Amino acid sequence: MSIFGHFRTSVRNVAGRSAVEQDLNEELQSYIDELTAEYVKAGASPDEARRRALIKVGGVEQVKDQVRDERPGMMFENTVRDFRHGLRLLRRSPGFATIAVVTIALGIGATSAIFSVINAVALKPLPYPAADRLLYITSQFPSLGFEKFWVSPPEYLELRERSKSYSDIAAYLENPVNVSEGSRPERVSAVFVTANMFDVLGVRPRLGTPFTPEQDLPNVEPVVVLSDAIWRRTFGADPAIVGKQVEIQGRKRRVVGVAPPGLDLHDIHPQLWMPLGLDPTNRRNRGSHFLYLVGRLKPDVSAGKAESELRTLVHQWGTLSPGMHVPNDTTHRLQLAPLQVEVVGNVTRALWILQGAVILVLLIACANVANLLLVRAEGRHKEFAIRSALGAGRGRILRQFTAEGMVLTTVGAILGLAIAHWGLKALLAANPASIPRAAEIAIDPRVVLFTLVVAAVTATIFGLAPLLHLGEGVVAAAIKEGGTRTTHSAARHRVRRGLVGGEIALAVMLVVGAGLLIRSFRNLTTVDAGFDGRNIVTFGINLPPSKYTDAQRRAQFSADLAAKLNVIPGVQSVAAMTGLPPNRPVNANDTDLENVPSGADLPAHNIDYYQSATVHYFEAMKIPILKGRGFTPSDVAGPGVAVINEAMAKRFYPNVDPIGHRVRPPGPDTLPWFTIVGVAKNVKQGGLDQKAGTELYFNIEQGPRINGRAPNSFNFVLRTTRPVDALASAIGNVVRSMDAGLPIIQLRTMDGVFADSVSRQRFLSQLLAIFAGVALLLAAIGTYGVLSYLVTERRREIGIRVALGASSSGIVRLVLRQGLGLTVGGILLGVLGALALARVTRSLLFGVSPTDPTTYFLVAGVILGIALLACLVPAQRAMRVDPLVAIRDE
Amino acid sequence: MPHSPTNLLQGTLDLLILKSLALGELHGLGVSRRVEQLTRGTFDVGPGSLFPALHRLEGSGWLSSRWGVSENNRKAKFYRLTAAGRRQLDVETGEWKRIAVAISYALEAN
After folding, report:
1. What's the pTM?
2. Most buried among A207, A331, A596, A736, by the most CB within 10 A?
3. What is the CATH number of the domain that holds B69?
């Protein structure tokens, strides 16, 4: 039969119900009549024949009910009827319904919200066509401890020429720039890309054209592709923007295109795309690694094949391009990874842990609601017995039993989606920078599907709980019970106690996890960064190279600006430096170290961080000098000096006094040397959770005179007790008085810088703490609810005990023993669960072991205490049971 | 409690009903008797299994029904195979034979 025919039957069954019922009645009647006639023919008397026919048919109503179940359309009708029934039941007890729906909605909402983050971050492919074909290629220097490093231009050009696996490989580097357009100069994120980047990503500008290879050569007309966002924000979505000039870093660039909306690269959110301008013939400077590579695999090449090709290429590299510093199998490898893995990075694990946590919360919520439903179902035993006697099949009874759960889940899921929607907004608003691909997070069909699955599972759990004790024979037993509540089956209590014990176990796991993460986060924030970060205000200044060509002028600018800032009232000291802790990428500079032996077994002469700073740097930052001295004003006109950090002293001068030794940045041998004059305490440049690297300090003011160099990017630090808002306008005035075209980059407190650097950890620990709190609350409510119920159920027993002379403390002990037995069991189970999960959480912890006994004992103690509180109220109520009332009640 | 055809293999009842109607239309009791006759009395299909199955098969479009008059001159509902039902009977017969052969092989294997 066609679907349409089936549909027609369904419609008839649902719509013309009375006619169908009439038909069925007549059919069964005719069957009985036929059977009677048969028996009469066989010689029975008419009465006897009729009696035997009726016996043969059995329950007419039951047969009818079974036929009804087989009819197409009945499923739907039954569902609707059950749903309405459930709705009616719930309307009768609005308090219970509200609590249950809110609990489920919160559980489902939180689960869906976290899932939509995972969906956007980890599951959805990157927003490029065939994004799974994109690979990210980096270098590795195992002996220097760099697991992921940039690639040098000659390496890129040679890889592109030699590799057969890719349709093309593009390179880029990230570098924020100043844009002088509109009323105020602006600092924006930007990428410099090879001309083929748009092709490799598989996108085309929404206006204009991608770069031509000719535009990507050194010393050609500068051009730019704008992002959709900056085109709208700064250029008013000018449809005729292509061909116009824009001033970037003090230099005019011609706009050749506008990128499609939302086009991103490695979560940089570039506002400007500019040609990289590599010279394809230049194969020198092999040691300078600064490119990221993105390759698009040919359609018929697998990532595995590309990987083995890359290994072969690296192996042969030395023969093909002999010379210093070429990739090889041991000290300078190349590696590739899917671009998606690279962009999302290690946040995926944290997100899955969050997902696990919310699912635990959801389970606890489910257990609570299931418990409530159980209690309600118990009160309806008699009702079900009557229904069964009146001809309801067991299936129908079970369906009605679960109808309430179905209604609760449906309403809860709808509300949950709304909660997920608003919760996500709040989540992202509170933690804008802590999640990659944040802009893509949304409730999409996959999230809705996920919510439906979660709701279905939830409904099943609710259905299962009553099923567990409404098994075979319960209906009969219920009739026999005749409605008294004194007899109770052990199975029923086992289910309920199991639910509460499970709840407590889940809560323990969650609270232990949250506790460990909170302790990690606290450890992270109390790490000694190596300087005093309190009362420091900082901002960045970038001098456009086109305007500030002269090194002396740049050094002078930084010294002058520092001096002028120092005059602002409330500012105690000011310094400028190139690198702002604690999130600096490693520079890894090859450095000449005089009289420091080198060799295969010795550390390579490579320094993790260079820091160029003005003379008052160590005072302004309050970095202790452990040996020798810091910079002094006399250095400005004096001989070349350098300061090193403890880590560098330990690595290169383990047995000698480093002071007096000489060092030199890379370059020709004619470059002058710098004499080490002091050793400073380690500063955490690369992250609070990282080891402090080796660091070498130069003085900005003397640089131009000694080796003709000066930085063009500075971070200024102002030690002051005044709040940042009060200083903003004064700082703005000072900077404008020196150069009105310079944007002030990220004016904020150093505390803020540090807080930002651990925002992801904070985000994770805060969310987990919230989930754990909710779990605790729910578990406490569950324990309380079950114990209250048990006390109510045992009122008569307790009354008898009291009547027989049991003391009130004995009664309290009775109740407490029951409650605490449950709790201790749950806690033990939860501790085992948490220990089993230790492997998963280990990588997210800092300075605390995943099996940290203090945390475990603390959590167990807290939960025991809360459970005790939850037991006390029912215990007190038990104590006050009046034996006369309790016994008479029944 | 109505008894269910637990001693019948799942799906066997449908096949037997289709087969019993292969020769012509029958009413409910007629189907029951024909099945009894076809299986030499092995299966006695009671109304608790029969009517749900008849309605299910009709709902699937394999049977059609009409009200008629029985040999005892009583009003009765008669069922007969539709074209789709005949095809279904062929399919299920083939399937059953395959299973039967397979099972008997399995049981005779050492």
Report:
1. 0.69
2. A207
3. 1.10.10.10
